[in-house]
Design goal:
Number of helices: 4
Number of strands: 6
CATH class: Alpha Beta
Helix content: 25-40%
Number of domains: 1
Length: about 180
């Protein structure tokens, strides 16, 4: 379950952001949206409570939002594990809330590869890549050890301008999560 929560946190950080006061999507607004939400979702906006973050997500995820991802887990001493996920808005928010405290020493880097805005300015397709790093508490015999984890994602998203805000409508991602070996 911790792996799913880690994935959900990783997944969200690459796909959303905050809406500027505009009547349509612009490249600058989309960049601001993605980078600001990365800060909010990663806990780097200390002035926001968990309730504030949930309210933000509720506003900026479309009511029919859908999230899909293929996830590959590389865990030392085990064969590579692969899974796929499909989540609706409620499942996504719930998983993100559960995963918010899963990592310590969390850091993320996101790169926007391309933005294509529709002629009417109401819809955009955005490609991003990102790397996240942190430490995940894992049992090692009778002790708990913090294992370094790195997630690398590539996502294709559809953003919409609706209800006077930027909303995530859909995202399809491919993610590789790599766990480092225990230090003993």
């Amino acid at each position: 379950m911790q792996h799913k929560n880690l994935f959900l946190l990783t997944f969200f950080l690459f796909i959303c952001g905050i809406s500027p006061a505009r009547a349509e999507l612009t490249e600058e607004a989309i960049k601001d949206f993605i980078h600001k939400t990365t800060e909010i979702s990663s806990g780097h906006v200390e002035s926001m409570s968990p309730e504030d973050i949930s309210a933000y997500l509720d506003t900026h995820l479309h009511k029919k939002a859908r999230f899909k991802s293929a996830v590959q887990y590389n865990i030392p001493g085990f064969p590579t594990q692969e899974t796929s996920m499909s989540l609706n808005k409620e499942e996504y928010i719930q998983g993100l809330e559960q995963g918010a405290n899963a990592l310590s020493d969390y850091d993320t880097d996101i790169t926007i590869k391309s933005i294509k805005i529709s002629k009417d300015g109401k819809r955009a397709t955005v490609q991003t890549t990102g790397i996240e790093r942190g430490s995940l508490p894992m049992a090692n015999g009778t002790q708990t050890e913090f294992v370094p984890v790195e997630g690398s994602s590539s996502c294709n998203q559809i953003l919409k301008w609706e209800d006077d805000v930027i909303q995530m409508y859909s995202a399809i991602c491919s993610t590789v999560v790599t766990f480092q070996p225990f230090s003993n």
